């Protein structure tokens, strides 16, 4: 039995249902499209903030790092689980902690790193930050194990190389550390932080020209990079350059107070202290040192400069200051070797020897690899140490011990070979061993005048005077003055030395030669 209108009802139901389904599908489709578009927009925003943050971090200044932080915070509001952004945030906080010594940055670095690791980030920032964190915490065995595991997996990046360099430096394997710092700086040549780290490592070793060159490469990457600029100025001052040459840089950096983190404040104050010291104002230098240590108490350059200022005042506290600097950075040769030299110069031979003994204790178990792959004790290759020790022994009147140290410096055959030849030759001259002295001195003071050590020519001149060869001796003394002037010795000092030689000639019965000597040497010490 048919129900009237039933077919119409079916038709109406089918049409309405279809329309409803179409409507639902349209709504879902519109929602899906809107979600997809929104998701795409969010992804674009996230990517844009991440690119901006990376670019800011690459510049390396505190203001740039602050900008990077702001972009990352905005990014995390959109995508809190962005693993690569978390890794970059960890790298950024690690820089603020290890380089700029910002309070609380270490805790933030650990927090961001743990988030990045829990999210499975495999970026270079994540692994580099973990390795640097372990080194910064002094967990050298764990750091070494991690780096070895990553190397075995084929991981390789400038950040990992930088962590390796810092680890090697901490272990006292300085030659290998230099090479690693250089590789990291070359691999990340657009990032001034890496060249700056390399420059600081060179500065710690007292390799001033090389350090300035490394800081110059950092400035090429970012001409406005504050840490490289002020530390380059400090390296130049340590090398004996006139403070006038770096005054403009220091003033410009000092004027940017808002950009100066504790590290930059301390480094800036140390450079100002060295500038004051170069002008003969040790008390002013000590005032700047106090400001540096207030900004960052562990600044080893501030403690070192304090020792230099106290040594200039011939204050007995100089030894304590140098020892405090070494305690902060025991594997930095500059602090010990220069500190020992200055202590010896002010008459504290006991303090100088104690510092050298501590240096030997620090490095006595360190091995270094030769060009043919063999491992030898690092001290056997450390000619600068043996030269310093020989000088202290010689000043103390322990000539046999001094000769033994100079022989070790010679056997190292390092970059200081010529200086070692001169040192031993001068000591043999003092012992009247003219033949032994002459063979060593002529090797570094050739007759052509092409040698680079003024003192070697002066010693050879004295040797020839002692043998009655006054004309030849005057020639060597002339070469000595020429070289000294070329290396920046003030003309008043040259004049004093020339007059001393004139008096030597007169007392030796050579008045005519004394007169001729001043005629020839006079132009060397005339004011330009």
What does this 3D model show about the protein?
This protein has 528 residues and is an all-alpha fold. The protein has a domain at 446-527. 75% of the residues lie in helices and 1% in strands. It contains 26 helices and two strands. It has helices spanning 6-59, 62-78, 83-98, 105-118, 124-136, 140-152, 158-171, 174-187, 192-204, 208-221, 226-238, 247-254, 262-278, 282-295, 300-312, 318-328, 333-345, 349-363, 383-395, 399-412, 417-430, 434-444, 454-466, 470-486, 491-507, 511-521, and strands spanning 367-369, 375-377. Helix 6 (140-152) packs antiparallel against helix 7 (158-171), helix 7 (158-171) packs antiparallel against helix 8 (174-187) and helix 17 (333-345) runs antiparallel to helix 18. The longest helix is centred in the N-terminal third of the chain and has 54 residues, at 6-59. Keywords: Membrane, TPR repeat, Transmembrane, Transmembrane helix.
Identify the notable features of this structure and list them briefly.
single chain, 2 strands, mainly alpha, two-stranded antiparallel ribbon, 528 residues
């Amino acid at each position: 039995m048919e129900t009237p209108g039933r077919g119409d009802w079916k038709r109406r139901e089918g049409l309405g249902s279809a329309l409803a389904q179409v409507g639902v599908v349209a709504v879902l489709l519109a929602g899906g499209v809107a979600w997809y578009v929104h998701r795409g927009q969010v992804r674009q925003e996230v990517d844009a903030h991440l690119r901006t943050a990376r670019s800011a971090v690459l510049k390396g200044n505190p203001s740039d790092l602050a900008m990077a932080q702001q972009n990352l915070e905005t990014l995390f509001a959109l995508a809190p689980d962005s693993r690569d952004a978390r890794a970059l945030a960890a790298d950024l906080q690690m820089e603020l902690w290890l380089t700029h010594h910002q309070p609380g940055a270490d805790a933030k670095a650990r927090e961001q790193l743990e988030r990045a690791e829990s999210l499975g980030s495999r970026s270079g920032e994540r692994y580099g930050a973990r390795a640097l964190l372990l080194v910064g915490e002094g967990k050298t065995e764990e750091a070494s194990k991690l780096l070895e595991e990553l190397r075995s997996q084929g991981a390789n990046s400038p950040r990992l190389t930088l962590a390796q360099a810092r680890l090697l430096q901490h272990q006292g394997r300085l030659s290998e550390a230099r090479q690693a710092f250089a590789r990291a700086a070359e691999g990340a040549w657009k990032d001034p932080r890496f060249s700056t780290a390399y420059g600081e490592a060179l500065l710690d070793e007292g390799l001033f020209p090389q350090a300035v060159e490394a800081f110059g490469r950092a400035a090429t990457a970012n001409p406005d990079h504050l840490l490289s600029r002020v530390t380059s100025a400090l390296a130049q001052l340590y090398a004996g350059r006139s403070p006038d040459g770096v005054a403009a840089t220091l003033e410009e950096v000092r004027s940017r107070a808002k950009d100066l983190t504790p590290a930059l404040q301390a480094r800036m104050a140390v450079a100002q202290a060295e500038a004051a010291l170069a002008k003969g104002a040790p008390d002013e230098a000590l005032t700047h040192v106090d400001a540096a240590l207030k900004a960052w108490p562990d600044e080893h350059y501030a403690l070192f400069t304090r020792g230099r200022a106290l040594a200039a005042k011939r204050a007995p506290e100089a030894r304590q200051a140098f020892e405090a600097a070494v305690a902060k950075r025991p594997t930095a040769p500059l602090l010990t070797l220069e500190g020992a030299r200055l202590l010896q110069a002010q008459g504290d031979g006991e303090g100088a020897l104690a510092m050298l003994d501590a240096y030997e204790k620090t490095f006595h178990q360190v091995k270094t690899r030769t060009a043919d792959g063999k491992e030898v004790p690092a001290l056997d290759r450390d000619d600068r140490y043996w030269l310093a020790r020989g000088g202290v022994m010689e000043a103390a009147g322990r000539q046999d011990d001094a000769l033994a140290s100079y022989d070790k410096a010679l056997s190292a055959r390092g970059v200081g070979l010529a200086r070692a030849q001169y040192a031993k030759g001068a000591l043999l001259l003092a012992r009247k061993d003219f033949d032994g002295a002459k063979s060593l001195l002529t090797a570094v003071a050739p007759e052509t005048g092409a040698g680079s050590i003024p003192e070697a020519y002066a010693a050879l001149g004295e040797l020839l005077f002692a043998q009655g060869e006054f004309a030849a001796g005057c020639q060597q003394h002339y070469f000595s003055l020429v070289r000294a002037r070329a290396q920046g010795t003030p003309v008043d000092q040259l004049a004093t030395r020339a007059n001393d030689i004139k008096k030597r000639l007169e007392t030796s019965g050579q008045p005519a030669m004394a007169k001729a000597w001043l005629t020839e040497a006079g132009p060397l010490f005339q004011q330009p």
